[in-house]
Amino acid sequence: MSDFSEELIRSKTEDDQEESCVLSGTGMYFPWLQKHIDTVETGGKKEKDFAQTTSACLNRIQEALLKHQWPQAAGYMHSYFQILEDSDSHKRQAAPEIIWKLGSEILFYHPKSNMETFNTFADRMKNMGVMNYLKISLQHALYLLHHGMLEDANRNLSRAEMWRYGEKSSSQEVLINLIQAYKGLLQYYTWSKKKMELSNLDEDDYAYNTASQTMLNHSWKTSVNLGALIQTPGVWDPFVKSYVEMLEFYGDQDGAREVLTNYAYDEKFPSNPNAHVYLYNFLKREKAPREKLISVLKILYQIVPSHKLMLEFHRLLKKSEKKDHHKLGLEVLFGVLDFAGCTKNITAWKYLAKYLRQTLMGNHLAWVQEEWNSRKTWWPSFHFSSFWAKSDWKEDVALACEKALVAGILLGKGCRYFRYICKQDHQVLRKKIRRIRKSVKKHSIVNPGL
Q: Gene Ontology terms, cellular component aspect (predicted)?
């Protein structure tokens, strides 16, 4: 492998100490560094050259990373370690975190890297500047988790959890909470496996009682570890989901509802669509009233109008007895189809085609016109051009027919999309095309009297 990774795992022997070498302030051994700093002075042109060299080296590393040239990046990284001897104290203090981020990325993807190299690098970097210990420990644990080494990751997190340096700062407290939460996630994983085992056992079996007690122990530990984190403002989706699953399993519906409600509505937490999704799914499992479900999805609609739950939201609104909900149901369908990622969603087009007809038959032309007025300048080219007519007919005939019906209602019989689809001689769909023509003639908003 490159000199960079070889130096990371090389031990410092007595022979090494006798060579011309350099020790960083943290005790890391860099025999190759001497040539880089022999000429560095504390002022003048050579100090300026040193700064320019390290800056250029960093740029080369970044460029190699962007191009996924891991061996080249490792080669440049080998030289970048000289930043640890920079005369600028601010640069020296920032260097360990930069080296960790760059080095861990390189070692993660380098074709010749291995677990031993990465672990050695991580262990040394933890002690290079105490302020980075917790952060690096957490990222090291995530690397171990990625490679399926759960026990090693748990030991790593346990050591980090007990680590202290000086008075606990607010940033340290957040990191410790996060470390404890990841421990909780590992405990949840064990609990989840036990739950699967439990489902295959007879309740009268002795093994059932043993497994049940083990699960209870793990759930208690997990609750302790996750509890502090999910009360701290942030986005904690996997932790919240795990915690709520356990609360539900043990019948604490009130506790689960409280956690999810706070996560979704507490103003201290950042806006998070998933928080509303989790709350909605929980209320749905509880068979909550329709009005409650609508109120949750209404907020989700305001955050992510194209969310996959919006079609379910439309169905709920459609079943409501309130007229403003029926109006919102139309708005939701138009909102979904405003997004490029939804243009091929045949269900959305079916719903819109059907709901347009129902809305117009209910004498709510103004609702349709209100939605269409803000879209009539861009929807025709976005959805209903000749190009899309040919493309849709070729790829999905059913989709093309639904879109043609919507196009005819909104743009009239002169719409190019509508005309192209209606001209197609398709035996199976001939009756459907005739129905489309008839429906457009009856419901088109371009000329209601047609």
A: RNA polymerase I transcription regulator complex
